[in-house]
Backbone:
């Protein structure tokens, strides 16, 4: 009997919730990020998928022939499968953000090895409706089968053609290129009434308002029309009617590329709210909430109170066809103090004074029922949905201390948290302060250029500003310690030795180097930061075996010692050899 589900390419084996293609030309690229909702090309998970059962290994993607959407399944499930032919012989280029990409990689270009002159290559993009075309610039050959090109900002789907001009034999390669699908991260919804101006932030909205179709909110007649693209990651629109049933999912199409947001953060009355019916126990719901990514916000398991009840109800209502529209919350009862508390978020373990309505006391865990609009008691192991909230936390760095070579460098630093699309970031280091500017959250990186120097640690202070509220975090950078790569030969009578390595800086007076117990004096630089000479007098002690070389820069020692072996001297004259030294 045929299965009602069909296996598709994709799994989240490497990282739970991050679905990657596992076959075909797209192998290894992102399909869907459960925590951010990003889907660069296409995904079609149901609103309560992919589920987050902690006790099931549902790592693989299947198509549901009954609900006509995707589902995540266990490997042991016996399903039908679908195969696709062709495409593996064509070049491949993954989708590019609508802001463009100066280093877009095109791979799998067969016979490219015969092209010796890159200037003979021409890379042309023609939109599928022939409305526009352009040629890539700055073509660089990176391997015998791949090139990188500069792709300008744009939207839509294109036919990509690579040709060789003036070369024999002449080749032509063709494939399909598309800009990334739009992504909705945050929706600013002060009211659900008709005529409300809605702000939406995310990425890949392009720059042409006419290319954005009316935005649909939930399974109702409400659309967000009159779209105005302010920037690639920010647009506004106006509610055509009052929303009284559903908000999720939110659908948007940019230049024929469709995207559906099943659980973006909704900003209402300065609260950032979200719900997800991805079944999990209370621990799994907390883990999921903390893993959520919405620009620079921090997620946590929340609870329903009077000020959020109406919005949470709208966010949960599109689950109304489910038999059990219940969601885990962070509400708990403190039996010692005799009042309710929230167990998660910035107010963790603090008293909740405006819960509504009052749940039973002394329960192990609480869920909220969006049909009865009341709290219920539940075993912590039961699988329910999740009520999440976000707050603005201090900015965070990937590392506590960054290492910089003494010659200076531009360091790629991952900076997360700290705000939203509208937040401004400023960085203070080495006596200078960068102007406040927005941070691109995809990914949230900051390229920081450090001058030449030595020592440390030195502070890096990042400050974020949103609505005149500042948050500050201090991390550090240190210059890398010196390291020796090579030392020239030296005989038993001592002499000048050349030391090659890294991070020696430029000031010879700061260099200290000893070979065994003997100090190498008269340091002189041959190459700044990389090579110097010094003189070792007649070495002391036995010359048998190697000697540790200790080098330091203003007291900062190398991480690992170098072993130096004196060369044996060949005796050509009638002199006596002191065998006690060898």
Residues:
């Amino acid at each position: 009997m045929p299965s009602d589900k069909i296996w598709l390419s994709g799994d989240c084996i490497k990282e739970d919730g991050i679905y990657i293609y596992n076959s075909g030309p797209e192998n290894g690229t992102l399909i869907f990020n459960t925590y951010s909702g990003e889907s660069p090309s296409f995904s079609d998970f149901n609103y309560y998928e992919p589920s987050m059962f902690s006790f099931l290994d549902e790592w693989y993607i299947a198509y549901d022939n009954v609900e006509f959407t995707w589902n995540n399944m266990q490997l042991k499930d016996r399903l039908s499968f679908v195969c696709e032919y062709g495409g593996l012989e064509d070049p491949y280029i993954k989708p590019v953000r609508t802001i463009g990409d100066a280093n877009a990689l095109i791979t799998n270009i067969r016979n490219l090895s015969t092209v010796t002159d890159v200037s003979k290559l021409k890379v042309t993009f023609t939109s599928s409706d022939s409305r526009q075309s352009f040629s890539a610039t700055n073509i660089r050959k990176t391997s015998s089968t791949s090139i990188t090109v500069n792709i300008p900002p744009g939207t839509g789907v294109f036919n990509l053609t690579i040709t060789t001009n003036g070369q024999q034999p002449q080749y032509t390669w063709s494939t399909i290129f598309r800009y990334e699908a739009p992504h909705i991260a945050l929706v600013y919804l002060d009211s659900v009434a008709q005529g409300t101006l809605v702000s939406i932030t995310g990425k890949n909205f392009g720059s042409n308002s006419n290319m954005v179709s009316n935005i649909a909110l939930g399974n109702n007649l409400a659309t967000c029309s009159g779209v105005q693209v302010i920037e690639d990651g920010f647009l506004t629109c106006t509610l055509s009617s009052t929303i009284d049933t559903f908000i999720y999912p939110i659908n948007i199409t940019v230049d024929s590329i469709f995207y559906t947001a099943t659980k973006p953060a909704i900003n209402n009355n300065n609260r950032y709210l979200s719900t997800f019916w991805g079944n999990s126990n209370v621990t799994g719901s907390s883990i999921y909430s903390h893993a959520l990514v919405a620009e620079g916000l921090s997620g946590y398991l929340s609870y329903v109170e009077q000020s959020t009840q109406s919005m949470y109800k709208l966010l949960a209502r599109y689950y109304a066809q489910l038999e059990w529209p219940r969601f885990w919350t962070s509400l708990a009862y403190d039996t010692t103090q005799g009042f309710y508390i929230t167990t998660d978020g910035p107010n963790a373990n603090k008293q909740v004074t405006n819960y509504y309505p009052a749940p039973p006391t002394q329960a192990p865990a609480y869920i909220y029922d969006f049909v009865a609009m009341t709290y219920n008691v539940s075993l912590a192991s039961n699988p329910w949905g999740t009520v999440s909230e976000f707050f603005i936390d201090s900015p965070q760095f990937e590392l506590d201390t960054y290492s910089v070579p003494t010659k200076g460098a531009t360091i790629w630093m991952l900076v997360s948290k700290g705000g939203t699309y509208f937040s401004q970031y400023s960085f203070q280091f080495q006596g200078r302060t960068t102007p406040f500017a927005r941070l691109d959250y995809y990914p949230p990186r900051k390229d920081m250029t450090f001058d030449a120097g030595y020592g440390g640690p030195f502070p890096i202070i990042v400050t974020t500003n949103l609505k005149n509220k500042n948050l500050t975090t201090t991390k550090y950078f240190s210059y890398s310690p010196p390291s020796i790569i090579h030392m020239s030969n030296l005989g038993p009578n001592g002499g000048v030795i050349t030391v090659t390595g890294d991070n020696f800086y430029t000031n010879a007076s700061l260099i200290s180097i000893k070979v065994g117990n003997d100090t190498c004096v008269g340091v002189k630089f041959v190459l700044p930061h990389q090579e110097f000479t010094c003189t070792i007098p007649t070495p002391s002690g036995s010359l048998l075996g190697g000697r540790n070389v200790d080098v330091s820069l203003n007291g900062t020692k190398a991480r690992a010692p170098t072993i130096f072996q004196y060369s044996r001297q060949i005796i050509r004259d009638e002199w006596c050899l002191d065998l006690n030294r060898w």
User: Anything to note?
Assistant: Residues 282-291 form the longest helix (10 residues). The mean pLDDT is 89. The longest strand covers residues 469-479. Helices lie at 282-291, 309-316.
